[in-house]
Amino acid sequence: MTVVGTFGLSVRDQALEADVQAGLAAVEEGLLEATKSEVPFITEAAQHLVRAGGKRFRPLLVMLAAQFGDPYAPGVVPSAVVVELTHLATLYHDDVMDEADVRRGVESANTRWGNSVAVLTGDFLFSRASHMLADLGPEAVRIQAEAFERLVTGQILETAGPRDGRDPVDHYLDVLSGKTGSLIAVAVRFGAMMSGADEHVVEILAQYGERLGVAFQLADDVLDIASDSHESGKTPGTDLREGIPTLPVLRLRERAEQLGLPEDRALVELLDSDLTDDARHAEALARLRVHPALEQAREDTVRYTEEARATLAPLPECDAKASLLELCDAVVHRAG
Questions:
Q1: Cα(44)–Cα(118) distance, rounded to whole angstroms?
Q2: d(CA 112, CA 327)
Q3: Which residues partner with 222 through β-bridges?
Q4: What is the distance between the alpha carbons of residues 245 and 57, in angstroms, rounded to a whole number?
Q5: pTM: predicted TM-score of the whole model, two decimal places
Q6: d(C-alpha 46, C-alpha 124), whole Å
Q7: What is the CB neighbour count within 10 angstroms for residue 318?
Q8: For 273, which DSSP code?
Q9: d(CA 15, CA 109)
Q10: Which of 73, 79, 100, 121 has the most CB atoms within 10 Å of its CB?
Q11: Cα angle vertex 85, ends 53, 135, to 5°?
């Protein structure tokens, strides 16, 4: 049994392990090649987060999904590079919006070079992903375009907030389906599709990816509160400082409204204050870390993970399926 990648997936079959390792190595080479420019400064900025590492969660899903067809098919690795480039591009943009200082344990691009360079570098990565997509065929372009529309829509809905009368938690889960679930669904869809897997297998894996993607982001929400920067690779409480309503905060507000407990209302008041103040931010973070709302967010993460697990039931038993199931366990472990 061998651990593959930084996400901690244990692969028990040596042939599968070899395929996944070779695929991820090829993706890494593809990422470096795709981020090269004739302008050295653009290459440096575009490779900033590539070289910082990362879990390569989406390429891993591409490689595992490809096992349901021909994992050596020519479109598998390029499609994984496309998905990861798209993901990386969103990180450059997210860090500008969040005014984040750290990403993947290194200085964020916006901190190092300023917002304009960070945004334009993200755009550069999107353009390179689009160029590679053109070689994968019109269906791949359509799938990516639809996912990208959902991703941007999710981001806009997050910024706009829920409309009057809409449950904030339901709104937030819809946001995550667009922002995160859509691209992870594309990862497994591309892997299966490019490998020539049966259409019903492609659809099952896409449903799995969507649910796992939401669970993965919910685990990140928990990490943003519960971890330190060494564990998460970014500044703890970044979303909290910016007033972004992640699930632990939404569950706190829901609890305060339903139960009316003084300690809950006091914490809500603290969250509504100016958390750019370091002392207030540290206090809010510390109090949330021991609040029942954080545990409720963990339970929500487990629920979505179990839904992802259930979607795989119709697939035949094989090592790739076992590995996808194990990724569900890894997401739960990530959330603590």
A1: 12
A2: 34
A3: none
A4: 24
A5: 0.88
A6: 8
A7: 13
A8: S
A9: 38
A10: 79
A11: 140
